[in-house]
Amino acid sequence: MSLLVEDEERLEPIRLEEHESAEHKKFYDCLLQGTIAEIKEWNKDDMYNTYFKNGLAPIHVTAMSGRDDEMEEILTILLKGGADVNAKTKSDHNSVLHLLIKHNHISVAFPGVVAALDYFPDVHWRNRHLRTAYDIAVAREYFDIASCVDGTMMPADARALYGRSVGVIYGKRLMAAILNNDEEDAILSVNKGANCNILNDHGCAAIHYVFTVYELPPMPLVTAMHQKKADLNITDSEGDTALNLCVKSRPLRLSGQMNNIVAALVRWGALSTYKDLDGNDALALATERNYNDIVRLLKKDRAQHILTEEPEISKTPLEDVSPHTRIRNKRPELMQSVEAGALKSQIANTEPEVIESMDAGSSQSQRKDKEQVVEESAGTMSSISTMDRQEPEVIKDPMKAMAELSTTEVPIVNFKHAIPLF
Question: What stretches of residues are ANK repeats (predicted)?
């Protein structure tokens, strides 16, 4: 349930009592419509702390004046001139923090609150409805402002938070102004530091709406956005850029604005190579619609490697053959030498295999002779294995053994003809 109720104080600063003094009326009108210089001239006779008949002080009138572009500066002038930052309205006992948050968009309320916090107002003050400025900020879902007036943040920290949030705050306001065809508020939001490149829940940035729903001439707003570093090549959820949407816009074509806008976008760095979901870029869209003037503009600044079709790369027959076949095709003499070397290596590493056939009519004596030869060979191998595996001799005198070892000649063993043990 919202903390705000319908019967709560709704002050109208333009309404003045009939018996208000002439001087107060002039000062009142100056706060609503006067220039900064004119407001400074009223810093006399403690006028900044006077109360009007409707129970408002000058700081309260400013907080509800609706002067979005100058409210922060006017508040700063009044507070520097001695205005009481903790002054309360006579009816509901609201402070300037209450009024700033309740009667203004967050883009206006936030800098005003930050300006007031520099003079250390009582952030814990409750109005006649027992609400603090924090309560109203939460009710309006101004959570960044709420964190500034909860009593835990210093003015410098609040200003730093505003600096980090201003882009998003004014970016949302910019998008709303474009949807409402409000050119003045849109350009004001851009100049106040709107982030022109944030995407909404539909995947669109402000510049996309300029070419789809904005009914006013887009050139002034697009120029202001470009000067504030708007990304002209940012794509929406369908892959379209500002240039693509400009070419697709039928109203811009009928009104004769398309050529100038396309030329400006290309001059500012918009690329014509981004493709939409159908695979069409700006050049393809212009070609499809027979916009010959737009085609000439896009081709003039289009990269040459994109204009020229790349030759098709044919597959060479060598990619489908084995490495040996590639060598044979390129260097026949190299292949012959490779094959000859492989043949030599194969002959050298191959031992002749003796196959003896045992005829069924062989004599029993021949079989016994062969068995005896096999037993003698096995005995020889066993004796060699036993010789190689003699138990190590226990050395009792290490010094004497080292002396004998130094005078003993070590025989050179040719391991090439050594008989394998296993």
Answer: 54-90
Tens of pLDDT, residue by residue over 265-317, are 999 999 999 999 999 999 999 999 999 999 999 998 776 545 454 445 444 44
Do 175 and 68 have their domain in common? no
Tell me how many degrees the CA angle 78-188-32 measures, rounded to the nearest 5: 35
pTM value is 0.60
Q: Hey, what's the torsion of the CAs at 21, 74, 85, 59, to 10 degrees?
A: 30
Are 68 and 127 in a shared domain?
A: yes
Kindly report the CA angle at 169 between 164 and 173, in degrees rounded to 5?
155
106 and 227 belong to one structural domain: no
Q: Phi, psi (5° rounding) for residue 126? A: -110, 135
Check: CB of residue 88 under 8 Å from CB of residue 94: yes
H runs (alpha helix) in 301-363 = 304-307, 323-330, 332-348
Question: In angstroms, rounded to a whole number, what is the distance separating the alpha carbons of residues 82 and 45?
Answer: 11
Q: Cα–Cα distance between 294 and 285 in angstroms, integer?
A: 10
